[in-house]
Design a protein that fits this description.
- The chain has 300 residues and is mainly α.
- It has 2 domains: 211 residues, Alpha-lytic protease prodomain-like, CATH 1.20.1510.10; 75 residues, Cation efflux protein, cytoplasmic domain (Alpha-Beta Plaits, 2-Layer Sandwich).
- Helix content is 67%, strand content 10%.
- The chain contains 9 helices and 3 strands.
- Strands 1-2-3 form a 3-stranded mixed β-sheet, covered by helices on one side.
- Strand 1 and strand 2 form a beta hairpin.
- Helix 5 runs antiparallel to helix 7.
- Belongs to the cation diffusion facilitator (CDF) transporter (TC 2.A.4) family.
- GO terms for molecular function: monoatomic cation transmembrane transporter activity.
- Keywords: Membrane, Transmembrane, Transmembrane helix, Transport.
- One of its GO terms (cellular component) is membrane.
- It comes from Halalkalibacterium halodurans (strain ATCC BAA-125 / DSM 18197 / FERM 7344 / JCM 9153 / C-125).
């Protein structure tokens, strides 16, 4: 099985794991939240439900990125995953805003002390979501998938929100037991904290995804081996220009080589072909475009 196909299968499986797990968690937290009178847990359930949508977006993005180059997209569809990351970040921000509005309204409504059952639901959520984060983050980094890494951090945001909900629910239960009124609002405060955490994470992930979507070249220190590999090809007298740009999970290289000005066009083409073949052996290099210049005696 080709490396690209293996990558797609692994990322697709991870996305489906997220969809199934989040559906179960969202249903559990929503039901327990209503039974236990916990606004923080219901807010957390909405967050888990949004993770289902984000996993579906990731699944679509990974599938699109796998498509081969065509007439309209000669460089491939690698940026589809970065676009999916932006969509996930926007969804995350919307969820955070809705939770913030709900938390604010809670301060002006009668407060019911949540039941202890809510704590068990939150603990289960923390355990499952942390497992999903570690699994997806590992795969995302391994296969250079912006979409899966963003989705992984979406799971980590759910861990943070569940932890905040745990503290809020615990404070509210304690406040009801000790008859301390301000502690009873701990559940609503936890919802507000959850909203802030989600908003911050959405901003950070969206900012990174937009950066990855825009064309940017790798730094010189990241391309030392590539440039040395190109120079090592027989007939290459100098590198006039070298740009390696990330295109989603893979790299496309634009290079200008200098050769003996007295050689034939065919010989220059042969050297250019050798340079491309050598660079295509480098990790994550998807395509190489080589331009041949006559050597003018000046080294870069």
């Amino acid at each position: 099985m080709r490396e690209e196909e293996v990558r797609y299968q692994k990322l697709r499986f991870a996305a489906w794991i997220g969809i199934v797990a989040n559906l179960g968690l969202a249903a559990m937290k929503a039901i327990v939240g209503m039974i236990a009178n916990s606004k923080a847990l219901i807010a957390d359930a909405v967050h888990s439900a949004s993770d289902v949508v984000s996993s579906v977006v990731v699944l679509i993005g990974v599938r699109a990125a796998k498509m081969p180059p065509d007439e309209d997209h000669p460089y491939g569809h690698g940026k589809a995953e970065s676009v999916a990351s932006i969509i996930v970040a926007v969804l995350l921000f919307i969820v955070g805003f809705e939770i913030a509005v709900s938390a604010f309204q809670s301060f002006f409504e009668p407060v019911e002390v949540p039941r202890t059952l809510a704590i068990y639901a939150v603990l289960i959520s923390i355990f499952v979501k942390e497992g999903l984060f570690r699994y997806k983050h590992y795969l995302g980094k391994k296969f250079k998938s912006d979409a899966l890494v963003t989705d992984a951090w979406h799971h980590r945001s759910d861990v943070l929100s569940s932890f905040a909900a745990l503290l809020g629910i615990g404070a509210a239960i304690l406040g009801g037991y000790l008859h301390i009124q301000w502690l009873v609002y701990g559940d609503a405060v936890a919802s507000a904290v959850v909203a802030v955490l989600i908003g911050k994470m959405a901003w950070d992930l969206g900012n990174q995804a937009i950066h990855n979507t825009l064309d940017h070249v790798l730094h010189d220190e990241d391309t030392v081996e590539m440039r040395e590999a190109a120079k090592s090809v027989d007939g290459v007298m100098n590198l006039d220009a070298f740009h390696a740009r990330e295109h989603g999970h893979y790299v496309i290289i634009d290079i200008k080589i200098a050769v003996n000005p007295r050689m034939t066009v065919e010989d220059g083409h042969t050297i250019a072909k050798a340079v491309k073949e050598r660079l295509m052996l480098e990790p994550n290099v998807h395509d190489v475009f080589v331009h041949v210049n006559p050597y003018n005696g000046k080294d870069s």
